[in-house]
Structure formats: structure tokens, C-alpha cells
User: What shape does this take?
Amino acid sequence: MNRSAESPGPVVGVLALQGAFSTHLDRLASLNVKARPVTQPEHLKGVDALILPGGESTTMSMLLDTSGLREPLGDLFVDGMPVFGTCAGMILCASNVLDGRPDQRGFDLVDVTVRRNGYGRQLDSFETDLNVAGLASPFHAVFIRAPRVEHVGAAVDILATHDGVPVLVRDGTCTVAAFHPELTHDTRLHELFVAQLNGN
Ligand code: GLN
Assistant: This one.
């Protein structure tokens, strides 16, 4: 941890209100990227990019309000801060959420419609190898009660699909994955995200 804190380059915040944030921090540390958990507005000072992890989007939505993070985060996102949303994080970034709780709210950063838990009971969780644009070999993806993309806006780049359904997409500075890239030791998607911050 200390070693990564001394490294040059951008600082990546990981929203740490709930869910799978610690494995994202581990992946970033293994890349020697400066990373910090974000649980309150003060933690956003000096942060260049943000990861919204998997977990439970309804709970995260509630905690975004009680923590006071919703407004400052929304302002940073409007200003163009790069975001990587994974699973529940994808739901929080989507412009339209089906089967959400009526009071859950997100940031409307990616022009997609997603259905919460859209893979249904039989496929609650599954793993598969994905061909990802920009990666030379397949990426092993772990899906856990994943959101299913039902519509993608014309300006959205589709970076990977599974059975014809987009599972990794990018809209401007926001990238979202329906799966959990932090749950394997393959750090290539985190590397791509950080490369974007370094202007590569
Ligand atoms: N089903 C969860 C939700 O609705 C997302 C699952 C996950 O992040 N693994 O927020």
C-alpha cells in the first residue's frame, strides 16, 4: 500500500460504501497505481478518476445520499472525471434502469438501459471468456447477479459482448462492465482504465 502511495501518476478513488471495493484496491495496488477508498466527500480531494464497484446498487444509492457523496461525485462526473463502473457500478452509471427500486438513483453517465439481475435465476452467476476490444487474448469474466444490457445508445462503444449482449461498453469517459473484472488476477481492464488517465 505504502509503496503504491509513493508512485507517480494519477490517483484512483474506489467508492467504498459497500460491496467489492477492496479487491479493486488490491488490483490497483498490484499495478502500483495510487488508489484510495472513498467513503466521504473529503476523500475526493486529489482524486483523478473513480471506480464504482459491484455490490448492491440499491444500498449504494441510499449510502450515496447518507454519506453526502452523491452531489460532489455528480459534479466531478459532469466535469469529465473518468469512471469505471462494474456490475452494481454499471447500474449506477446507466441512463435507464429496469427492475430497480423506485427510489434508487444513479448518475446517468452511459446511454444504456440495463435490467437489474437481468440474467435470471438460472444464470444468477456464471463465468465466461470474453473477447475484448483492445486485448490480445480473452478476458475471463465473472458475472454475479449481473445487470443485462437491453439497449445501447448510438454513441456508445461496445467493447465486449456475451451471446450478442453488450457486457463492456464505453460512453465518453465512462466505461461500464456487467461483470467483475476485479475478481480475477487479470489486471488488463484496470490497466486500460489507468492508461486512459495517462492520456494513452
Ligand atoms: N444485483 C446487484 C444490484 O442490483 C448487482 C450485483 C453485483 O454487483 N454483483 O445492484
The two ends are 25 Å apart (CA to CA). The longest helix spans residues 21-30. Residues 14 and 113 are 24 Å apart (CA to CA). Residues 54-57, 87-88, 91, 116-117, 144-145 surround glutamine (CB under 6 Å).
